[in-house]
Amino acid sequence: MNKDLTVGKPESVLWRFCLPLFGSIIFQQLYNIADSLVAGKFIGENALAAVGNSYEITLIFIAFAFGCNIGCSVIVSQFFGAKRYRDVKTTVFTTMISSAVLCGVLMISGIIGCDGLLALIRTPEEIMRDSQIYLDIYIWGLPFLFFYNIATGIFSALGDSRTPFYFLAVSSTTNIVVDILFVTAFHMGVAGVAWATFLCQGASAILAVAVVLRRLRTIRTDGKAELFSWQIFGKIVKIAVPSILQQSFISVGNIVIQSIINGFGASVIAGYAAAVKLNNLVITSFTTIGNGISNYTAQNIGAGKTERIRQGFRAGVKLVWVLCLPLFLLYFFAGRWLLYLFMDEPTQTAIRTGIQYLRILSPFYFVVSAKLIADGILRGSGLMKKFMVSTFTDLLLRVALAYTLSKLMGAVGIWCAWPIGWFIATALSILFYRSGPWNAKEEKQRKSN
Q1: Long-range contacts of 178-185, Cβ-Cβ distance < 8 Å, separation of 24 or more
Q2: Distance CA 182, CA 400 (A)
Q3: Closest Cα to residue 380, out of 313, 286, 324, 280?
């Protein structure tokens, strides 16, 4: 069901809208977690290391899909808030056509270049073959990744956060079952893990796009929508490209960090692979709530209700901090047992690595979550330069510090780079949010009274 995010008490509106998004991303992350869990539990530590090693490269492709999602979602939200329904449809069609072209280019690039990239990041010989197999299958599933992300972005833009949740709840649960079936019954190894994700994500993508197109047919317009608009394409690109660059540079930074980690051996790689999946579950969840804040911000800007943005920021921070507390307690005190879910007979080095990572990072979830809410408002309002400055500051600090501190403190130094980058980038994001036009308008009204 489509929902107008420009009416109602902001806190109630956002909680009802964002909580299903949080649930959706939990199930979305189950795809990646299931791959690592099944690989480590039913195949072995090297298989877990291979999937984790490949995952950093898949994040580059996910960055492009995420950018298409955000670009389409923000523009559709603005048009929907302004009740320009014909432009809503044109934006959807334009995004699908341009994303199909982009996806084709990425598939060709991936087929040609991924093996070289695996070698570049110093992938150990014992996990090289499995890493190649996983990536090759993953690349053929890119169209499903792209169109599923576009569909979920459209649902969110229309104020519907429940439909993606239903799709993901079913498909991710099915993925776990198929993962185990392919690995244990058919003995397909890492290839079975990759094919399970391919099939389940493919089914959910096809169904999601079908529902989107049917939903669009129910929206009445004052004329026939164009299949492609260069003007709207430009608007999408303005939002999508910075988001793609942000996620791509983060992915490249993570690949650089992965190459540093690879120098410590397969056991450290396996421990990091398990722990980083748990960490990414949290960060991606908060990022998704930030995306919901972007939709809320864009709809209200489209409707000319900028005074609701400050209330939305406060409600968003309250929401993520409520979620932070149990996640921090779980990871900090029960991280060991969560790591055992991924590994059948782990080495002490692998377990120790994972525990150190989680205990160093989890207390700072309260910091980075506030940054992601502020980023959501900056992105939803089109302030992409400021959004990128804070993001790149975080990334550059993390990479530089990971390299420097690893020389002084070993692998522990790499994990310490995260909180430092988060702190400084959060300060920038909050500063940029507070200098936004919505704050200036409210301050002017307060002084006039």
Answers
A1: 179/34, 179/35, 179/38, 180/38, 180/42, 183/38, 183/39, 183/42, 183/43, 184/42
A2: 41
A3: 313
Cα–Cα dist 147/99, whole Å: 8
Pick from 278, 422, 287, 260: nearest CA to 356: 278
Please check whether residue 20 is in contact with residue 162, taking contact to mean a CB–CB distance below 8 angstroms.
yes
What CA–CA distance (Å, rounded) separates 353 from 356?
5
Tokens 């377990």 correspond to: 351
Position 175, amino acid: N
Helix residue ranges per DSSP H, 39-121: 45-81, 85-120
Measured in residues, the chain has a length of 449
- 186-199, pLDDT tens digit by residue? 888 888 888 988 89
In order of 23, 34, 35, 214, 369, the CA distances from 319 in angstroms are 13, 27, 29, 32, 10
DSSP-H helix ranges across 181-307: 189-217, 230-262, 266-302
pTM, rounded to two decimals: 0.70
Tell me if 429 sits within 8 A of 371, measured CB to CB.
yes
What are 260's two structure tokens?
A: 């540093």
| 121-147 tens-digit pLDDT | 778 888 888 889 989 998 999 999 899
R_g over Cα of the chain: 21
Q: Is the pLDDT of residue 40 over 70?
A: yes
